Amino acid sequence: MSETENETTETTETPVTADETVAEAPEPAADEPAETEADAEATESPEEPEPAAAQVEAGTVPSGDSPPEAPAKKQRPRKHIPRTLRRQRPKPQRERPAQRSPIVRLPKPDRERGPRQERRGVVVSNAMDKTIVVKVEMIKIHPRYKKVIRRSQKFHAHDEQNKANVGDVVRIVETRPLSKTKNWRLAEVVEVAK
Q1: How far is it, in rounded angstroms, from Cα 160 to Cα 165?
Q2: What one-character DSSP code corresponds to residue 132?
Q3: 71-97, pLDDT tens digit by residue?
Q4: Distance (Å, rounded) from C-alpha 149 to C-alpha 87?
């Protein structure tokens, strides 16, 4: 016979008659509640050994036996997640027109320039090319003490033709920045130095 037939013959048992089962099972007493099937199965089945992980958690590890150590998997820190694994946020799709409208540039409105500042001063230096240094004297009266205060300030001004000389009285006008220090230009020479 083959092994499978042996197993089947061993597992078959002799049938038990109804009289024998009745004689063996005691009847429950009137004051005791009848056992449910789940309770009966629990009492009849012998205790199965707990797995090692459950014993470790419950704290019922038998002394002398150490639980088998499972190989610990190294989890990668979640600092950097590849772009493909990141959460996708769908962008709302907007409707595109069939034809693009041309770019139209509106003409700038004509505005009058604001009044430009003017200063009158004396040329102190014309050593640089196309640049003069103009010293402007300001005279003020102090608001509280009423004393006359003289202050002077030097400006670098653009002189395109190099026509101003040292000692000339000139009028300079504010302009766009021409260099790091030049924001003025020569408007006219008022008095020529003697």
Answers
A1: 13
A2: E
A3: 666 775 667 888 888 878 888 888 888
A4: 72
- What is the total count of domains within the chain? 1
Bridge partners, residue 135, by sequence: 122, 154
CA-nearest of 151, 155, 182 to 170 is 155
Helix (H), strand (E), coil (C) string for 19-39: HHHHHHCCCCCCCCCCCCHHH
**Token pair belonging to 94:** 């907007």
pTM higher than 0.70, yes or no? no
- Give the pLDDT confidence of 134-185 residue by residue, as tens digits: 999 999 999 999 999 999 999 999 999 999 999 999 999 999 999 999 999 9
192 Cβ partners below 8 Å, 6+ apart?
A: 165, 168
- What range does the domain containing 138 cover? 118-191
CATH of the domain at 130: 2.40.50.140
Let me know if residue 15 belongs to a domain.
no
Q: Tokens at residue 116, please?
A: 């430009």
Does some domain include residue 13?
no
Would residue 54 count as lying in a domain?
no
